[in-house]
Design brief:
Layout: E1 2-8, E2 13-19, E3 24-32, E4 40-45, E5 50-54, H1 60-71, E6 85-92, E7 103-104, H2 107-115, H3 124-137, E8 143-147, H4 157-160, H5 167-172, H6 181-194, E9 203-209, E10 213-219, E11 222-226, H7 248-257, H8 261-270, H9 273-277, H10 285-293, H11 297-321, E12 326-330, H12 331-336, H13 338-346, H14 357-360, E13 367-368, E14 377-380, H15 385-397
Parallel strand pairs: 1-6, 6-8, 9-12, 12-14
Antiparallel strand pairs: 1-2, 2-3, 3-4, 4-5, 7-8, 9-10, 10-11, 13-14
Bound molecules: adenosine-5'-diphosphate.
Length: 398
C-alpha cells in the first residue's frame, strides 16, 4: 500500500511516496518557488534519474497537479494511476488547542487549520492549500493531518502554561505548544526500540539540532516538556533564532532603535541565533565551525553558547523526569556533527554519561555512541518525519 506524504511551505512543497509494505521511499521530490517566477519541480524515483520540470506554478494546486503527472510519467513515474495512492498524509503546523492526535481531514479539521492561521501564519495557510489541492486532484482519497504541535500537546499543564494572566490562555490559546512534533515522536519511539528500553516507562531526551532546534523530554513516548513555545522562537539558540530571551530586550531595542515590535521579532527570528551572535558570519553551523577553527572569537562564543544551552535543557529535563535513560541526537547538526554531540555530553559526566569517541565518529547512521559503561545510553537516530507521517496516516486508514 502506497502513501503520499506532503509537506507544504509558503512557497514550496516536498513530497515522498512511501510503500508501507516495507516502508521504502518509492519516489520523492520538491516543488520550489510556488507563486514566484522561475518555479520548478525536481522529482526522483528510486533507481531512476532525476526528472526536472521548469514550469510556472502559480498556486499549490498547480504544484500538486505537476507532482501527480511526475508520479505517473511513463519514464520517470512509479505508478500507473492515482488510485494506487491509498491516502495522503500532510504535515500541518498548528492544530491549536483543538487537535493533537492525527486525524482524517473533514470540514471541521479544515476549519481549525484556518482558525489557527494566526498561530502559524507562514505554514497553516500553505498546509490548507496542500490539502485542498489533493482533494481536487484525488477526489475520494483520504487526507490525514499530522500536527507538528501534536507531540507537545501531551505536555502537562505545569509545563505548557506561561506565567501570564490566565485570560490570555482562555481568550487566545496562548500557551507553549512545541514544534518538530513528528521528529520528536519518531526519534523518541525509535530510541526506545533501538535501545531496548521499557516502552511504558523509558525516560528519553531528544535533541533535534538542525537549523531550527528543539529538545524534548518524554516518558514512555509521551511528551513531558519541550523547548519551543507558542511559536518556534523559544528554547535553544538556533541558526537564526535567538531562543530564550528576556522579553524586555524587545522593548529595549524598540526604544533605542525606533523599531516596532514586529521588526524586532523579525530580528529575533531571522537575524539572531548563531548568525547574529557570530556578527553575521552564517546560520550554517559548518561555516561557524570553520570560522571558530580559524580563531574567530564571536564564532567560538556562538558555538559554545549553542552547546551550553542544549546541555542546560538536558539538565532541566533530567530534573523534570527525575532521571534519564537515553539521550538521542538528530537533525542536520545532531546527525552530522560529532563535535557538537561530544561537547554537549562533556557537560553530562555528572549523570554518568560517557561517549565512545570511536562510535561517535559517524554521520547520519543509527547507532549507540555512548560507552558500554555509560549510565545513560546516548544515540544518534536520523530523523524521518515523512515516515512518521506515513505511519500515522496508515494507522488511521487501516
Ligand atoms: P532544517 O530542517 O531545520 O532546515 P536541518 O535539520 O536540515 O535543518 O539541518 C541543517 C543544518 O545542519 C545546517 O544549518 C548545517 O549547519 C547543519 N549541518 C549539516 N551538516 C553538518 C556538519 N557536517 N557539521 C555541522 N553542521 C552540519
Amino acid at each position: 500500500m502506497k502513501i503520499l506524504v506532503i509537506n507544504c511551505g509558503s512557497s514550496s512543497l516536498k513530497y515522498q511516496l512511501i510503500d508501507m509494505d516495507n516502508e521504502s521511499v518509492v519516489a520523492k521530490g520538491l516543488c520550489e518557488r510556488i507563486g514566484i517566477e522561475g518555479s520548478k519541480l525536481t522529482h526522483k524515483a528510486t533507481g531512476k534519474e532525476d526528472y526536472v520540470v521548469e514550469k510556472e506554478m502559480p498556486t499549490h494546486v498547480t504544484a500538486i497537479e505537476m507532482v501527480m503527472e511526475a508520479l505517473q510519467d511513463p519514464t520517470y513515474g512509479v505508478i500507473k494511476d492515482t488510485s494506487e495512492i491509498a491516502a495522503v498524509g500532510h504535515r500541518v503546523l498548528h492544530g491549536g488547542t483543538t487537535y493533537s492526535d492525527s486525524i482524517i481531514v473533514d470540514e471541521d479539521v479544515k476549519r481549525v487549520i484556518r482558525e489557527c492561521f494566526d498561530l502559524g501564519p507562514l505554514h497553516n495557510p500553505a498546509n490548507l492549500m496542500g490539502i485542498e489541492a489533493c482533494e481536487k486532484a484525488m477526489p475520494g482519497t483520504p487526507n490525514v493531518a499530522v500536527w507538528d504541535t501534536g507531540f507537545g500537546m501531551k505536555m502537562p499543564e505545569k509545563a505548557y502554561m506561561y506565567a501570564i494572566p490566565h485570560e490570555y490562555y482562555e481568550k487566545y490559546g496562548i500557551r507553549r505548544y512545541g514544534f518538530h512534533g513528528t521528529s520528536h515522536l519518531y526519534v523518541s519511539g525509535e530510541a526506545i526500540k533501538f535501545g531496548n528500553l521499557d516502552p511504558e516507562n523509558a525516560k528519553v531526551i531528544v535533541c533535534h539540532l538542525g537549523n531550527g532546534a528543539s529538545v524534548s523530554a518524554s516518558i514512555g513516548g509521551k511528551c513531558v516538556d519541550t523547548s519551543m513555545g507558542l511559536t518556534p522562537l523559544e528554547g535553544l539558540i538556533m541558526g537564526t533564532r535567538s531562543g530564550d530571551i528576556d522579553p524586555a530586550v524587545v522593548q529595549f531595542i524598540c526604544n533605542k532603535e525606533g523599531k516596532d515590535v514586529n521588526e524586532v521579532l523579525n530580528i529575533l527570528n531571522k537575524k539572531s541565533g548563531v548568525l547574529g551572535m557570530s556578527g553575521g558570519i552564517s546560520s550554517d553551523f559548518r561555516d561557524i565551525e570553520k570560522a571558530a577553527g580559524e580563531g574567530n572569537h564571536l564564532a567560538e562564543v556562538a558555538l559554545e553558547a549553542f552547546v551550553y544551552r542544549v546541555a542546560k535543557y538536558i539538565g532541566a529535563y533530567t530534573a523534570a523526569m527525575n532521571g534519564v535513560d537515553a539521550i538521542a541526537f538528530t537533525a542536520g547538526v545532531g546527525e552530522n556533527d560529532k563535535n557538537t554531540r561530544k561537547n554537549v555530553c562533556n557537560y553530562l559526566a555528572y549523570l554518568g554519561v560517557k561517549i565512545d569517541d570511536e562510535a561517535n565518529n559517524v554521520r547520519g547512521e543509527r547507532r549507540v555512541i555512548s560507552a558500554p559503561d555509560s549510565k545513560v545510553k546516548v544515540m544518534l537516530i536520523p530523523t524521518n518525519e515523512e515516515l512518521a507521517i506515513a505511519r500515522e496516516t496508515l494507522a488511521l486508514i487501516k
